[in-house]
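Re: your question from the hallway

Yes, I did run it. Sequences:
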Amino acid sequence: MIKAVRGMKDILPPETSRWQHIETVARQVFACYGFQEIRLPLLERTELFSRSIGASTDIVEKEMYTFLDRHGESVTLRPEATASVVRAFIENRLDQGAEVKKYFTIGPMFRYERPQKGRYRQFHQINGEALGGEAPEVDAELILLLMDIFARLGLTEIALVINSLGCPLCRPAYLLELTALLARKGRDLCEDCQRRSTSNPLRVFDCKSKVCQEILTQVPTMADHLCDACVQHDERVRELLGRYEVPYRSNPRLVRGLDYYNRTAFEVVTTHLGAQDAVAGGGRYNGLIKELGGPDVPAVGFAIGEERLVALLSQQDEGLALPPLLYVAVLGAAAMDQGFDLVQTLRRRGVAADLDFGQRSLKAQLTMANRRGAAFVLILGDQELTAGEAPLKDMATGAQQVVSLTDLAAICAALQGKGV
Ligand code: HAM
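Structure:
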């Protein structure tokens, strides 16, 4: 048996209807905020990611699916979408016009991580990206949008955590101070943090080791070193979140796994998913477009992890309501022919209808209808065909009514009572 590649999973019904629901709601909310869809290739030149995400991040150092194509060019399955959005923005000259360009994109990402609950090697994200706006209102709008998606999905028990990571004006001095401090702690830090303290010092805040965490409580954070402009930006974002009653928690130790962020950084976390607690993450990436050869245009964005969102919503409720199904149980060849015709006519009227082709007993067909969650079963045999009417059984109550086979409106009306 050929199995799926480790860390990549099939998404099967009925779970797929939850995915559809999430994506439908996200699309509706994006539309309200003026975000348009952008669809991008899954494969990009490797340097796009190494230059944007950061050479010393876990993603670029050890998690990318990188290979040489038949022409010997190094290509990579995208580990995230922001770099590709920026590449497309530059390549297609989407910077024309003064307005903020707002895009969303939904699709799979690939990271060669150690698979565990909530962490896969192929996973899916819903990304929202706003390019061309410097104002803190753009950050606030984007976070409000993100939280609206969660609210519209009825997601509770999540927390928005925010921080400011400073800018090229104030961060370098802080990084120097942090590096010097970490150098003094030297061998007390775990091996990873010793390495990070020179290559990517902010990342030490993400270390899970208790010893490192203890040391880090004594280390000053970026929040204490922000320049006036960064403080003002941060305060305005928080003020707007407060105005629309979006609760958030400040965490001056929040850092992100990608290097392109400055100023606003945020995550949406939950206590219900074990170790993989972030359902979404994002922030401002003002220097990235210029860094990748485009105009000096600021930007901000987020990505929701769909697998984690699906897991959270499944924990919260029973499942999604599907359109009520009419199942036609057919007994004999003539009934099969008539049943096929009836089902086909109903489908063309927008009613979900189905039948079985296996010439099984009535009992077996009723069991099948039950398993499918049918709202009604119409029972068709030779006798019913002759009479021109058949019993319609309500599967929830067991009640039966006899309907005329030519009176499709009555069948539709019965289903409409179930919310067709
Ligand atoms: P990220 O924090 O790396 O950010 O990923 C965003 C979300 O994707 C995470 O919060 C998580 O829910 C989900 N995720 C990440 N890795 C995995 C995995 N291996 N398995 C399952 N889910 C996963 C970014 O990717 C940025 N590009 C977000 C962004 C957009 N920043 C600005 N714009």
